[in-house]
Amino acid sequence: MDYDIIVVGGGPAGMTAAIYAGRGGWNTLLIDPMGGGGQPSTTDTIYNYPGFPEGIGGTEIMDLMARQAKAFGVKIAFDEVARIDKEQEGGFRVTTGEGGHTAKAVVYAAGTHPRKLGVPGEEKYLAKGISFCATCDGALFRDKVVAVVGGGDSALTEAVFLTKYAKEVLLIHRRDEYRAGMANVKLVRENPKIKELLSTVVESVRGEEFLTGITVRDLRSGEVRDLEVQGLFLYVGWTPNVEPVKHLVDTDDHGYVLAAEDMSTKTPGLFVAGDVRRKPLRQITTAVGDGATAAWSAENYLLLRGAK
Prior knowledge:
Elements: E1 3-8, H1 12-23, E2 28-32, E3 45-46, E4 56-57, H2 58-71, E5 75-78, E6 81-86, E7 92-96, E8 99-108, E9 112-114, E10 130-131, H3 134-137, E11 145-149, H4 153-162, E12 168-173, H5 182-189, E13 194-198, E14 200-207, E15 211-218, E16 224-228, E17 231-234, E18 238-240, E19 270-272, H6 284-304
Parallel strand pairs: 1-2, 1-8, 2-5, 8-19, 10-17, 11-12, 11-17, 12-13
Antiparallel strand pairs: 3-4, 6-7, 7-8, 9-18, 14-15, 15-16
Helix pairs in contact: 1-2, 1-6, 4-5
């Protein structure tokens, strides 16, 4: 086998698993298309990770995790995993865009990708006004009107962030109450640049070369109106990245991987961690816990098989 443990995914769960595996002395490879970072790297400032009372930048904390993993001998590969297969001798073949690798155990922490609205015009204006990352693209909309769709903590946090650049931020949510914590709701309602449009949905997207507006419908009155916006940021949920392992795991109705408390799946030697698994809370803190548990379980699995 090329490696003892391969970790797929470079977010907080994957990086933590790699840190624990590397520190345990296991020959470890982490594979991620961007070399690591995950969703936190698209967040400007993280305020709820313990130990940082003033907050810490998403990119900064993920860079620190990557440095720590490398310090423990973890190799990081910039690549994308297409499929993982269990081999007859009990190990795994991890097929990537650059070829592939083998390992005695795998920690799969590939996370999720953002869900789309599924409305007319959306596909045409992806990356032409429609974005899933305010931190990445917010500066492109300086002094413009933008809309944020969603009612969870991500949507509210990014709406507040966008007020650094935008002239006005329309916060659109289909329900009459947010799903976010009260701290973020308070920040939204205290910000004069944010206009709340609750019980409202986006019906369509329009523009020319780039996005110029959206059509919304008030779910209470049924009123339909056109709004001029130059940016549309979507935070309407996530879809788990399970395709490479779907033949090796069980999933729930939403596609999230079902795992035991020790992060094991129905395939011996394959463990999952982070947002890709079914769990009640998806935060950096819970991802880190998953990653530590998955690495510990992978180590026990290898020791029981006499791998070290």
